[in-house]
Design brief:
six-stranded mixed β-sheet, Beta Polymerase, domain 2, NADH_quin_OxRdtase_su_C/D-like, 3 helices
């Protein structure tokens, strides 16, 4: 499923048509953590290369972004996965893209995000004695994702995906959103 001559073997939570001029990304594809390996494999089969993986500490948890580009097709594709802060874990794609090894270790170093199945999830840049997550924000400094990321024109949205809706449901008392 996708369009613009790009296909994925999974159903995204949402697809937003981005703007190269404002974000450098032509398509934002929101996925579940369970779908990231299949989606990465599909990108490799379509000759996309992985540019980077990054983590952003937002009010809703961690947004993990995978940026892909192609040598002959214009535009960058971003796969985005939102994970809960308390259980910041998702599958490694280092067996699909070797370069992911570095980026996943960097996310682990700076944000404490774990990548299951990673062959060498050890500190990359920081001293091994430094606790993971040195770039974590305090609660007051975290912004809602919708304030820092514009997904672009929404061209597909799965049922129940409300992250960028105008009206957000009130969080339950005692439950982190």
């Amino acid at each position: 499923m996708m369009g613009d001559n790009l296909s994925l073997p999974v159903t995204p939570l949402m697809i937003g048509k981005g703007s190269v001029q404002t974000s450098g990304v032509t398509m934002n594809v929101f996925l579940t953590a369970d779908d990231i390996e299949q989606a990465a494999g599909a990108m490799l089969k379509q000759a996309y290369h992985l540019e980077n993986i990054d983590a952003i500490d937002v009010a809703e948890g961690f947004l993990i972004s995978y940026h892909y580009a192609h040598f002959t097709k214009p535009g960058r594709i971003a796969h985005r996965v939102l994970v809960c802060r308390d259980e910041a874990e998702l599958p490694s794609i280092s067996s699909i893209y070797q370069g992911a090894d570095w980026h996943e270790r960097e996310c682990y170093d700076f944000h404490g995000v774990k990548f299951t199945g990673h062959p060498n999830l050890l500190p990359l840049l920081l001293d091994p004695e430094t606790p993971n997550g040195v770039l974590l924000k305090d609660d007051k400094s975290r912004k809602p994702l919708r304030e820092i990321l514009n997904p672009g024109e929404i061209i597909f949205k799965g049922e129940g995906f409300t992250l960028f809706d105008e009206e957000q449901p009130e969080p339950e008392e005692g439950v982190e959103s």
